[in-house]
């Protein structure tokens, strides 16, 4: 599906964000509404790729699982984000599982509706090429991070991605992540064992690099985390 490790919030590197507003509005005019309850599965890896979904309200989790059942979170997506847009291009089965973290309201566009639209508006293909190139760059960054970043760097990257999506800057340049995230979820985002995340977070909390209050993480020293996340 081509997401960043923990992309979220506003749409990025998807067809709808690349299309001019008039084309995007026209494309989604034929969309239907779908609602999900928290923890409900939107689709599973391997399901038919029958269309795309835009998040209008709520949060979605995009994940894959190993044969042993270990989960890797590829993305947490908020309003404006899109899932399944590659499926309308290649028609292949879903490559990841998508689950609602909160109650969600979604707009669904079928592959048939998309095909009809691009027949009428062939200039859409230009924006598809731009989107696919951006996805490829994101994939390169993800592979590099998993290959070369130390464990602390991977956790820092996950926290910074969450801060980009859900962060509120407060006094002194500190950033509060307004989304509760467990250490298990951080581990699944970073692609490392939960025990390693626990050790790293404890180190950062002792150093006052990160704090936690009522389940919300606060990045006390975002610049230090950024340095940790750099290749």
Automatic annotation (TrEMBL):
InterPro entries: cNMP-bd_dom (IPR000595), cNMP-bd_dom_sf (IPR018490), Env_Response_Regulators (IPR050397), HTH_CRP (IPR012318), RmlC-like_jellyroll (IPR014710), WH-like_DNA-bd_sf (IPR036388), WH_DNA-bd_sf (IPR036390). Keywords: DNA-binding, Transcription, Transcription regulation. SMART domains: cNMP. PROSITE patterns: CNMP_BINDING_3, HTH_CRP_2. One of its GO terms (molecular function) is DNA binding. PANTHER family: CRP FAMILY TRANSCRIPTIONAL REGULATORY PROTEIN (PTHR24567), HTH-TYPE TRANSCRIPTIONAL REGULATOR ARCR (PTHR24567:SF74). This is Crp/Fnr family transcriptional regulator. It comes from Undibacter mobilis.
């Amino acid at each position: 599906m081509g997401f960043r490790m923990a992309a979220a919030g506003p749409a990025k590197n998807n067809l709808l964000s690349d299309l001019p507003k008039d084309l995007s509005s026209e494309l989604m005019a034929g969309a239907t509404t779908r609602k999900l309850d928290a923890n409900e599965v939107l689709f599973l890896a391997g399901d038919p790729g029958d269309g795309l979904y835009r998040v209008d309200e709520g949060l979605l989790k995009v994940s894959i699982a190993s044969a042993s059942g270990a989960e890797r979170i590829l993305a947490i997506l908020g309003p404006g984000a899109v899932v399944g847009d590659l499926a309308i291009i290649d028609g292949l089965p879903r490559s990841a599982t998508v689950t609602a973290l909160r109650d969600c309201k979604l707009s669904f566009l079928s592959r048939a509706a998309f095909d009809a639209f691009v027949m009428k508006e062939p200039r859409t293909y230009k924006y598809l090429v731009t989107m696919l190139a951006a996805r490829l760059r994101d994939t390169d960054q993800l592979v590099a991070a998993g290959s070369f970043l130390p464990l602390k760097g991977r956790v820092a990257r996950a926290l910074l991605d969450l801060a980009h999506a859900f962060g509120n800057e407060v006094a002194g340049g500190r950033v509060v992540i307004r989304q509760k995230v467990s250490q298990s979820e951080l581990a699944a985002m970073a692609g490392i064992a939960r025990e390693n995340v626990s050790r790293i977070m404890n180190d950062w909390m002792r150093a006052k690099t990160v704090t936690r209050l009522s389940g919300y993480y606060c990045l006390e020293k975002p610049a230090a985390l950024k340095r940790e996340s750099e290749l």
